[in-house]
Each structure stands twice: as C-alpha cells, then as structure tokens.
Specification:
Helix 1 links the parallel strand 1 (4-9) and strand 2. The chain has a five-stranded parallel sheet with strand order 3-2-1-4-5, with helices on both faces. The chain has 471 residues and is α/β, with parallel strands linked by helices. It has three domains: 4-125, Rossmann fold (3-Layer(aba) Sandwich), CATH 3.40.50; 128-159 and 202-286, Serine Threonine Protein Phosphatase 5, Tetratricopeptide repeat; 297-470, DNA Cyclobutane Dipyrimidine Photolyase, subunit A, domain 3 (Orthogonal Bundle), CATH 1.10.579. The chain is built from 18 helices and five strands. Helix 14 (357-367) runs antiparallel to helix 15. Helices cover 45% and strands 6% of the residues. This is Deoxyribodipyrimidine photo-lyase. GO terms for molecular function: deoxyribodipyrimidine photo-lyase activity; DNA binding; FAD binding. Belongs to the DNA photolyase family.
C-alpha cells in the first residue's frame, strides 16, 4: 500500500488558492484532511465558534465532492498527529502557516519531532501576501511603522498569483478510532448571527467579494467611515477563517481596476487596508509578546483604573453615549462592528474610562466573528497609543462629534438603540440635553442612561495621565 499524506486545516478553510492542499493532491498519495481543536490555543468566543462550525460544515461538503472526508480531533496536535501517522502509515504532513507565537512554537516542535523520525512536514503560505520575514527595513530588521512597511511591500514585491483548486483528491478508505463529531456551538438567545448578511464558507466569501466590487468599491474611499453605508468589504470574517485569501482579493481588485473605471484613490485605499492586516501579522510574528504586553514600554507605567462597573456598562452598551452604545450593542447581538465604530468604542474604553486596552481586546476577542490573532491586538494597541504606528494618545475621539459626523442621519444609531428612535437629530448624540429642551420630544426619562462620565472631564483626566508617563 502506498504511503499517505495528512493535510491539517487550521485557518485556511478553503480549497482554492490553498498551496498546501494543492501540493498534497499532486503527490498521488491518499490524503487525509483533518481539523484539530487544540485546547492550548486561545479559546474563541461564541460568534467565532459559530462561524468556524458553519465553515467547517461547508468545507467538509466540498471535500467530499472531490473525494475526501474531513475528520475532526480534539487534543494536543503533536499527540494526535503521532497517532494518525501510525494508523494511516503517513510519511508526510502538510499545513498552512500561522504566525502567532504559540502556533510558531507548536509547529516548530512538531516539525522537529517528525523530522527525527524521517517523516516530512511541509508548511505553506496561505494567509498573507508576503511572508513576515521577507519584508525588511534598511537595517535588515522588521518594520515598526505601517507606511514605510507598505511602501516597501509595494516597491519590491508582487504577490503570487492564486493557485488553482484541486480537481480531485484520493481519500483514504479507512476510518481511524480517534475522530470526534464536529462540536455544535450553542448560541445566546439574543444572538442574531444568522442573517442575510453572512454566509460562512468559501462560496459565501466569493459572493461577498463580488457584492463589494459591485456595490461598495466605487464609494469606498469616500464613505468607508460611515457605518450606515454599504461601503466596506465585510470580508474580515472570511479572511479570518481563510475562506478567501488576500491573494484572491488582490487579484480580483487588480482585474477590476484594469477593466473598469474605479478611481486610483479608492483602489489604493482599500488595498492599504489589506496592507494593514499584513502589517499586523508582520508585528505579531516578529514581536509575539505584543499579544499581552505594550509595544511602547512607557505604557507599562500608565495609571489604568480598575472599574468593573464601568467596564460592564461599556460591554452592555449603556454608557450614555449613543454611538458608543450602538456599536457595543451591534457587537453583542451580531458579532460584528463597523471599523470606524470599533475605533470609537475602543477609544472610549481606554481614554474616557481609563481601562486597560487588554480588557477591551479580550472582550472583542470573545464577541467578534472575525476575532483575529493579529488584527485585534494591533488595533487595540494602535488606539491605546501603546503599539507600533500608534495613534497619539492625545487623539481622543469625541463620541458626540463622531456620531454627528459619521452617522449624520442617525440610522445606524437608531437601529441598535430603538429607545432613541424618535429623538430629534439635534439631540441624538447628546440625548441628556433633550430633558431641558422646551421642544416636545418622544423621549421617556429612564429608558436610556445618562453619560457615565462627562467628556471634557474624561479628556482632561486622560491627558494628565498621559503626561505622567512622559515625565
């Protein structure tokens, strides 16, 4: 009997542009596709678990069409792979690379263990345009600021073209005794994850990309910051779980750019957001400790406040600032939040409430469909001012002005805070002012909370704290 090859799916849940899977299909060996629930990996929350479950169901169905079954396991990956190597007489393992500190160390141990036994382990890039170790600054080190990083990417490199989907796989007829059923994800009663907006899986990713090109790309640069407009790609959950690759997105955007009349500005702006994702992985690979530590050491002395009550009100969307609360309620209910609103809610927690960015990062990780091991960390540190290419700490979003500017009709805010639906626009983002206004308003006192902190006071307090760590 010929040897077998085991393909280990991780966050690359697709068949197209999957170099590791294509390699496996070309060996002529019987292939065993697997997914391992690793208890030592960072646990994901309900929304992300739901998405992963739906994606794995779709992936299993697509694999079956071309000749192989997707098997599930739970436990320490090295131990599971050792059992499978013996049972299936496998002489090769393949997988797509991950870049966070835990995954890098785990994979290195696995490669070394099997190399000592004469079993080959091959890993491939399926998640990034450019490998983190290939992009270097003039001193030969990694980049610490986004703009020069992205200029370097664009100046000297062209992303590889997407590779084709395997037409057929030689599955293995034997069934090992180590498999488990795919675990079901229990959903909260108030969760609204199954909507027309989301179709987890590879085909859903392609549909979403097409929708964005048709409806959002032309207005992306102008309206990407407006949460009530369909101007963003909403591809982040698909990228998070690898149902689509950045190479596929890049290729598609370059194609439409050359064949349709999209402006250079809007295309460049969108591709720079793909670049920010690249930069986040660049950082997490080179500085894995940033997952829990400030990149800027001065922030180690920042006087964060322990305020569980305020943290809980922020999580619930009951801070008294409507745009902040709309974002937090959207997250709680749908597992998603518009990017501009993510920045505003994060800034409020850090700079209005003086709560450590790590508390916010953890909550977003627990609630987001697209909870990404690189983007989530990099985004929170950016807002805090503690990270690479950080927004200055003294840039403090005014949640009232942000609401008036980016939700000018109030449709986004009123969607998630229905108790303010009949409030006049002039009071929507400062509803406490309506209580003393002589104009008759449909606003019942007690339905919506007063602000938990006054903006100017909070701003001055944050700036004073920032001055303390600069002295």
């Amino acid at each position: 009997m010929s040897k077998s090859i085991i393909y280990w799916f991780r966050q690359d849940l697709r068949l197209a542009d999957n170099p590791a899977l294509l390699h496996a299909s070309q060996t002529g060996k019987r292939i065993i596709p697997i997914y391992i629930f690793d208890p030592n990996d960072r646990p994901i929350g309900m929304a992300a678990s739901w998405w992963r479950e739906q994606s794995l169901i779709n992936l299993g169905a697509e694999l079956k069409k071309i000749g192989a079954n997707l098997n599930f396991y739970e436990g320490r990956p090295l131990e599971i792979l050792q059992k499978l190597a013996s049972f299936y007489d496998a002489d090769e393992f393949v997988w797509s690379r991950q870049y966070d500190g835990y995954s890098v160390a785990r994979d290195k141990e696995i490669k070394q263990t099997f190399s000592d036994k004469g079993i080959q382990c091959a890993s491939f890039n399926a998640s990034l345009l450019f490998e983190p170790w290939l992009i270097k600054n003039k001193s030969g080190s990694h980049f610490k600021v986004f703009s020069p990083f992205w200029r370097q990417c664009m100046a000297e490199n062209q992303p590889d073209s997407p590779c084709p989907r395997p037409a057929e796989l030689r599955g293995h007829p034997d069934i090992d005794p180590f498999q488990i059923p795919l675990p079901a994800t229990p959903l909260d009663e108030d969760a609204d994850l199954v909507t027309e907006e989301w179709t987890p899986g590879e085909s859903g990713a392609y549909q979403q990309l097409e929708k964005f090109v048709e409806e959002g790309l032309a207005i992306y640069a102008e309206f990407r910051d407006f949460p009530d407009r369909l101007a963003t790609s909403r591809l982040s959950p698909y990228l998070r779980w690898g149902e689509i690759s950045p190479r596929q997105i890049w290729s598609k955007i370059q194609f439409v750019k050359s064949h349709e009349s999209f402006s250079e500005k809007t295309v460049t702006k969108f591709l720079a957001e793909i670049g920010w994702r690249e930069f986040s992985y660049h950082l997490i690979f080179h500085v894995p400790e940033m997952a829990t530590q400030n990149l800027q050491p001065s922030f180690n002395d920042f006087p964060w406040e322990e305020n569980e009550k305020a943290l809980q009100l922020w999580k619930e969307g009951n801070t008294g600032y409507p745009l902040v609360d709309a974002g937090m309620r959207e997250l709680r209910r749908t597992g998603y939040m518009h990017n501009r609103v993510r920045m505003i809610t994060a800034s409020f927690l850090i700079k209005h409430l003086m709560i450590d960015w790590r508390a916010g990062e953890k909550y977003f990780w627990d609630r987001l469909l697209d909870a990404c091991p690189a983007n989530n960390i990099a985004g929170w540190q950016w807002v805090a001012g503690s990270g690479a290419d950080a927004a200055p700490f003294f840039r403090i979003f005014n949640p009232i002005i942000q609401g008036e500017k980016f939700d000018p009709n109030g449709s986004y805010t009123k969607r998630f805070i229905p108790e303010l639906a009949h409030l006049e626009q002039k009071h929507l983002f400062s509803p406490w002012k309506s209580k003393s206004d002589r104009v008759e308003l449909d606003f019942q006192e007690g339905q919506y909370p007063d602000p938990i902190v006054e903006h100017e006071y909070a701003r001055n307090r944050a700036l004073e704290a920032f001055q303390q760590i600069r002295r």
